[in-house]
Fold:
Amino acid sequence: MARYLIPLAVFIVLVVLLGVGLMLDPRLVPSPLIDKRVPEFALPRVTQPTETLTSADLRGRVSLFNVWASWCVACREEHPVLIGLSHSRQVPIYGLNYKDQRVDAVHWLDSFGNPYVASAHDLNGKVGIDFGVYGVPETFVVDQQGVIRYKHIGPISEETVKDVILPLVKKLKEQRT
Amino acid sequence: MRLVLVVVLIALLSYPMSGVTAETAFEFSGPAEEQRYRELIAELRCLVCQNQSLADSNADLAQDLREEVYRLMKQGGSNEEVIAFLVARYGDFVLYRPPVKPITYLLWFGPALLLMLGIVVMVRFVRRRPAHTARALTEKERQEMAQLLGRNASDTTKDDRS
Structure:
């Protein structure tokens, strides 16, 4: 009996493992930056170029750090979700405008609305590299200490906000008290 | 009309090359350094088009990362330092040769383990087989065989013993 059951069991295990492998999205590369401090940066702000946005601005409260660009199609899809989230005033959203021309970025914010407290203008994408950005849009959840707690790759949906991001933000806020 | 077509064709053909021509803007102190750079970018994986190396990829990010590799090399960074720089940002994913650590043990040692398992199974299988066939003939079988061979039973018995 065992000589038939063992190959069958091996086969079933293999099918399950391969099945799980097929379901995984190879585009989602786990970030080594999780539970690390936000990389140091100081960049001019998109809307007020004379002022800077620095990594220090991401400390002190739980915040989102969203990487976006006017040339990014998926960002357009994500934008209404960010606008809705900014209206709910549950968590401040900072932006990293990645490899974008300032005029294009400003035009985008003027036409679609600005959900960001401020956006850093990363023209040559160097800060993006420090954040391990490889597919815009990406969204980081940063805690009070300026430590990255979560990274979402690709556009965030209403569901992601409701099921993942807001619960995490709530949990991180409670950790302080 | 024909001229326009030729011009358009040339423009289209030269377009994908733009990534390559930008490459040549890098200046190396000698062929050894260039060789080191080529080897490095061939061993690092692009995150956008995931089955291409930084050397092969025309993606924007690959271009930027090649520039970073070049910059770090020019600053005197060793191969290890350049690789560490990218791993710190993008994880082990950028390596075509993953490091040996607990999470990759199965990857590194799995094939050897499977080979050993295969050898064990094969050896056991081969050893078990003669047990089925290597059985002494019964007296009846011996006589039947002798008949078939056209000799009498006592001769074959003798032959067997000698």
About this structure: Residues 105-133 of chain B form the longest helix (29 residues).
